[in-house]
Amino acid sequence: MQKLVLPSQETLSLSRYPDRKNETLMPFDASDELVLSHFHENESSAQNVLVIEDNFGALSLGLKEITKSIFTDSFVSSKGILENCLSNKISAPKIINDLQNIDKEYDFVVIKLPKNMSYFEDLLITISRVCPIGTKIICAAMIKHLPTSAFTLLEKYIGPVTTSLAKKKARLLFSTIEKVPQELSSPYPIQVQMPGFSEKFSNHSNVFSREKLDQGSRFLLEHIPSRDYKNILDLGCGNGIIGIKAKMKNPDSHIHFADESFMAIKSAKENYQKYFSDEAFFHWTNCFENGEKNFFDLVLCNPPFHQNNTVGDFIAWQMFNDAAKVLKKGGQLRVIGNRHLGYHIKLARLFSKVDMVEGNKKFVIIDAFK
Question: Which CATH class is domain 190-369?
Answer without folding.
Answer: alpha beta
